[in-house]
Amino acid sequence: MKFSCEKALLQSAIAVTARAVSPKSSIPALEGILLEAGTDLRLTGYNLETGIRTVVPAQIDQEGSLVLSARLFGEIIRKLPDDIVSFQADGYMVNITCGMSQFNILATDPEDFPELPTVEDKNGFTIPRGKLGSMIRQTIFAVSDNESRPIHTGSLFEIDDTGLTVVSVDGYRLALRHEPITERDGALSFSFVVPGSALSEVEKICGDGEEEATVTQGERHVMFRVGDTMLVSRRLEGEFLAYRQAIPRNNGIKVEGDTRALLTSIDRVSLIISDKLKSPLRCVFDDNVLKITTKTGIGDASDQCPISGDGGGLEIGFNNRYLMDALKAAPADRVRLELSSGVAPCVILPAEGEENFLYMVLPVRLKAGE
Amino acid sequence: MKFSCEKALLQSAIAVTARAVSPKSSIPALEGILLEAGTDLRLTGYNLETGIRTVVPAQIDQEGSLVLSARLFGEIIRKLPDDIVSFQADGYMVNITCGMSQFNILATDPEDFPELPTVEDKNGFTIPRGKLGSMIRQTIFAVSDNESRPIHTGSLFEIDDTGLTVVSVDGYRLALRHEPITERDGALSFSFVVPGSALSEVEKICGDGEEEATVTQGERHVMFRVGDTMLVSRRLEGEFLAYRQAIPRNNGIKVEGDTRALLTSIDRVSLIISDKLKSPLRCVFDDNVLKITTKTGIGDASDQCPISGDGGGLEIGFNNRYLMDALKAAPADRVRLELSSGVAPCVILPAEGEENFLYMVLPVRLKAGE
């Protein structure tokens, strides 16, 4: 195995594939990146849950494959001068040369590296990479970390003629984003659930930009393709919450507020709440003002945030984290809050324009004196 | 106790004094900041080792003093809107109001707060604050963390008619910075040792700038005054290394190199060295080139760095960290390395101009095959 390539290109390919490498594994090959020099140079990381493969432009002088420790390989390449890196393997001993710098390190047998699942082309769609990334980013926080309902440790991807809907839920809140897609392939409508851990890597690979990303649904896996990089993840099996029925849409109270101002007020009052001293926020929706108070062993705090509309004095309790997560994610300067009573969920929507996001937060029972 | 002041000024005063507050203490008052409203508003943090006091412009309506948790007080003020903060204490209950935000928190008895030591004016000097800060920053890394020689857990401040010399040593290296001072008071020459922990706070308080900082040596303490802020630290007692005799100055080999290029080469080769797999750098000073190699269980690495001068093939081993710390700190683009043999220290000096810094690194014995 012998090849040479540009340091900067190799460095970014390692950074991408290393995301799917186990930091610590009983199988040493899983801590490594698979290098395959064939017609081109291919790098693969695979932790048995998520696999990432990318291609690097290289001059291949001799074909071959081997596995290198992702950490060490990444650090060596990162610290080399900005020049052409030459790579030559003699058995398992690998020589890396660049400028006046030279490294000799030991590789692992590529036979020990697990094979990446293949995803047969069944149903699929394309969407600009930046849009896919933001849809994931703005819903992933509501993915459950409770393994007792495994299906909810992922996000639902629902594709139909209106576009793509991404939904995350845990027992206390729901996050939903909707956008039109560029193209659809296969069935008229289909859906699948992708583990949150894989999605957080997809989000990073997406980055910004208008370039089309391709998503392909296989029997048991799903594949995301962005530029020269592809990510394969297993799908989660099970019945996802029938979320449409769970969202109340006939809410009598509708008020609007500045997203950042609401967030700042809640954040401020939350100072009095800690992991040890928990307490819900007591929110009172009055005429053109939202009053927020809370009280713990540390002391008490109150704040007021201007809103448009009259909440009629509705009093409702919330977990401060859940409200903040939703407001931080909401891609709008102004939001509409819909409520019906002190024991029904609060729905957060864009104040104007298309309804391309929806967050729902369940209330918390308020005790006297809180 | 009742006062009001600008949020931004109070926030930065808390940030400064909080540096001297114990993060965790069995005496609750030591986790707090002492607020004293008299003719002005004074904030004090004191962890019994280092004390920091600063003054905030405020309108005092009623005098008084109390202690507030540094963490909570700091967070509350930081998150308040940019406005006038009003502060009113009713017994130990403190009301903080700013705009539409209001907090009620509990204070601690100021009687429990330890008294800051007073530093009687004995000897002293002034020096621009930015210069004092950089002198500390460029020597503090060589302060020993070995408590068996307590005197070397601090830096020596030596003042004479040539200016200020700051020296740090552990058993393996030495760092020295020298600069002229603006003014000297008291004895013609004097010296004292300041704990490294206090100096790292002094360095942060100094920041940049030409404003004069005042340093006053007391019997058992030393005081640094920068603007409205003063820091008091105990002095370390004991006999500091007679460093002048320890530095070899008749070195036969003198070569020069680019500081950053040397650092990059060493950093690169150091990739092969880890906490678990230690090995010295094997440095060979040849004609206009420094060859650096090392070898561990991970593999081997080599690099070459251009130098000016002929090292005559001198081979010497170094701890990579110690060389890198010195080169990172050296305030010069080019350095001169002085050596005499493979078992004598390496001295690092500015390649040109005034000799305002000197680093010394002891060699490490090289074993065959390393």
From TrEMBL, chains A, B:
Per the database record, which ranges form the DNA polymerase III beta sliding clamp C-terminal domain?
244-365
Q: Which GO terms describe its cellular component?
A: cytoplasm; DNA polymerase III complex
Q: Which residues cross the membrane?
A: none
What Gene3D superfamilies does its record include?
Answer: 3.70.10.10, DNA Polymerase III, subunit A, domain 2
GO MF annotation, one: 3'-5' exonuclease activity
Q: How does it assemble?
A: Forms a ring-shaped head-to-tail homodimer around DNA.
Q: Which InterPro entries does the entry link to? A: DNA_clamp_sf, DNA_polIII_beta, DNA_polIII_beta_C, DNA_polIII_beta_cen, DNA_polIII_beta_N
- Source taxonomy lineage? Bacteria, Bacillati, Bacillota, Clostridia, Eubacteriales
Provenance organism: Intestinimonas butyriciproducens
Q: Name one Pfam family in it.
A: DNA_pol3_beta_3
- Give start and end of each DNA polymerase III beta sliding clamp N-terminal domain: 1-117
| Protein's job | Confers DNA tethering and processivity to DNA polymerases and other proteins. Acts as a clamp, forming a ring around DNA (a reaction catalyzed by the clamp-loading complex) which diffuses in an ATP-independent manner freely and bidirectionally along dsDNA. Initially characterized for its ability to contact the catalytic subunit of DNA polymerase III (Pol III), a complex, multichain enzyme responsible for most of the replicative synthesis in bacteria; Pol III exhibits 3'-5' exonuclease proofreading activity.
Q: Does the record bear rRNA processing in its keywords?
A: no
Q: Which terms are listed as keywords in the entry?
A: Cytoplasm, DNA replication, DNA-binding, DNA-directed DNA polymerase, Nucleotidyltransferase, Transferase
* UniProt name for this protein: Beta sliding clamp
Subcellular locations according to the entry: Cytoplasm
**Principal subcellular localization:** cytoplasm
User: Where do the DNA polymerase III beta sliding clamp central domain residues begin and end?
Assistant: 127-240
PANTHER family in the cross-refs: BETA SLIDING CLAMP, DNA POLYMERASE III SUBUNIT BETA
